[in-house]
Amino acid sequence: GVEVGPQPQGVARADVLDKMRKIVKHGLDFVQLFNEGKEFPPCTMEVFKIMEKIDYPRNENGEIIAIIHPRLQDQDWQPLKNGDPLFLTLAGEVIPYQGNCTVYPTFINEAAYYEKKQAFVKTEKIKLTAKHLRLSVS
Questions:
Q1: Which residues are part of the catalytic machinery?
Q2: Distance between CA atoms of 60 and 134, rounded to whole angstroms?
Q3: How far apart are CA 86 and CA 109, in angstroms?
Q4: What GO terms are given for molecular function (predicted)?
């Protein structure tokens, strides 16, 4: 599967559709080249690994008592450091991020995740190394 976004539920966006078409084309091109015997050299790339899902602050009745801070909104994949604004209570109090390392939030304030009690997903940036890849013929 391919998920490209973000985009609001029930909305078809031409720019997002174009990105989806491009990624599917690249995937199909890779499969074709691999099947033709092309060798792909080793490579290293940065990726984001999911650490944990973070819920909104809630009261004892389970009701949300703070929203995503405006400085965090629309900042998917951007670094979030200790002390950066994270949530804003309905009374205007800033709740900062408290962590011992920089993280990269994603799926920030996605409507589809409210019912799943998820304000965002905390990820870490890591490097993966892939060995060379080549079709082995038996």
A1: 3
A2: 56
A3: 11
A4: hydrolase activity, acting on carbon-nitrogen (but not peptide) bonds, in linear amides
> Could you count the other beta carbons within 10 Å of the beta carbon of residue 46?
8
CA 112, CA 110: separation in Å to the nearest integer? 5
Q: Say if residues 4 and 16 touch (Cβ distance below 8 Å).
A: yes
Which band of pLDDT confidence, cut at 50, 70 and 90, is reported for residue 15? confident
CA distance 77 to 124: 9
Helix, strand, coil in percent for the chain, rounding step 5: 20, 30, 50
Say if residues 109 and 87 touch (Cβ distance below 8 Å).
no
Whole-number Cα distances in Å, 136 to 28, 34, 37, 40, 95: 19, 10, 8, 13, 54
Give dist(CA 76, CA 104) in Å, integer: 7
pLDDT tens sequence across 41-81: 999 999 999 999 999 999 999 999 999 999 999 999 999 99
The pLDDT value given to residue 133: 87
